[in-house]
Automatic annotation (TrEMBL):
One of its GO terms (molecular function) is zinc ion binding. GO terms for biological process: carbohydrate metabolic process. It comes from Bowdeniella nasicola. This is Tagatose 1,6-diphosphate aldolase GatY/KbaY. Its cofactor is Zn(2+). InterPro entries: Aldolase_TIM, Class_II_FBP_aldolase, FBA_II. The keyword Aminoacyl-tRNA synthetase does not apply. Keywords: Metal-binding, Zinc. Zn(2+) 1 binds at residues 84, 177, 205. Gene3D superfamilies: Aldolase class I (3.20.20.70). The active site is at 83 (proton donor).
Length: 278
């Protein structure tokens, strides 16, 4: 069932479990991740990024309406979330379309501008009963350059939440986006300090670069929403590569999508269990 992020994240934070958030690039991903969530009997966040919208020729509706329809038919709580939107108008379009959560990412802006824009989105989202995630302290790797050095200050984070009224906060604690190896070293003391200072659930971005143990330790230290994308692309593409090497005569895309989505489904189910057992 389509569910709001605020209540699910609050309940995960209260019981110390992680909430898996996975990026939908193609519509198949929405079904794959939802099937994995149903198997694991866990809630899941299906997130569509501004970059994914760009990939779909700037059209939000086709991928979004399909994903919303998958979420509504699910047996478990499914949140449909806009990820890393730097465009305020895109946030408003997603809210109008029925997304249950949006991330306004103003982390590249000067602090005051980030605060003001985030507060505007919160006001619009509140009226529609939609949750808002924001980011403070830019997590590296969004422009292809890895930089795990950014850190979010706990005092600044608490003030940012008080000023904007966001439901979740993405913080910089040592991960970096789009890593294809899993050696990121997280600052667990900082995560614990942020958890103590910030009254809303925290979000770990760039989790593809974090090991299984690292993700579980991050959840124990106080992270709630765990965003994974690159790792699942790697699983998908690696499977396609192997399958096509073994079946060079196949031309029907459904034939090679099948093993690739099956591999992603197994990996998402495994991650969701890992987050539940942190
Ligand atoms: O917002 C999405 C995530 O932070 C995914 O990052 O591709 O490094 O796992 P990742
Ligand atoms: Zn991210």
């Amino acid at each position: 069932m389509l569910t709001d992020l605020h209540s699910v994240a609050q309940s995960c934070a209260a019981d110390g479990t992680g909430l898996g958030a996975f990026n939908v690039i193609h519509l198949e991903n929405a079904r794959t991740f939802t099937r994995a969530a149903e198997e694991s009997e866990r809630p899941v966040v299906l997130q569509i990024s501004q970059n994914a919208v760009k990939y779909h020729d700037g059209m939000l509706e086709p991928i979004a309406l399909g994903t919303l329809s998958v979420a509504k038919a699910a047996d478990v709580p499914v949140i449909v979330h806009l990820d890393h939107a730097e465009d305020e108008e895109l946030c408003r379009r997603a809210i109008d379309l029925g997304f249950t959560s949006v991330m306004y990412d103003g982390s590249h802006l000067p602090d005051d501008a980030n605060r003001e824009a985030t507060a505007r989105i919160v006001e619009y989202a509140r009226a529609a009963g939609v949750s808002v995630e924001a980011e403070l302290g830019e997590v590296g790797g969004k422009n292809g350059v890895h930089d795990p050095s950014a850190r979010t200050d706990p005092g600044d984070a608490a003030q940012f939440v008080a000023d904007t009224g966001v439901d979740l906060l993405a913080v910089a604690v040592g991960s970096s986006h789009a890593m294809t190896t899993r050696g990121a070293e997280l600052d667990f003391d900082l995560i614990a300090a942020l958890r103590d200072a910030v009254p809303v659930p925290l979000v770990l971005h760039g989790s593809s670069g974090v090991s299984d143990d690292g993700m579980q330790a991050a959840i124990r230290a106080g992270m709630t929403k765990i965003n994974v994308s690159t790792h699942l692309n790697k699983v998908f593409t690696g499977t396609v590569r192997e399958y096509l090497a073994e079946h060079p005569d196949v031309v029907d895309s459904r034939r090679w999508f099948a093993p690739a989505t099956a591999a992603q489904e197994a990996e998402v189910a495994r991650l969701l269990r890992l987050y539940a057992e942190a």
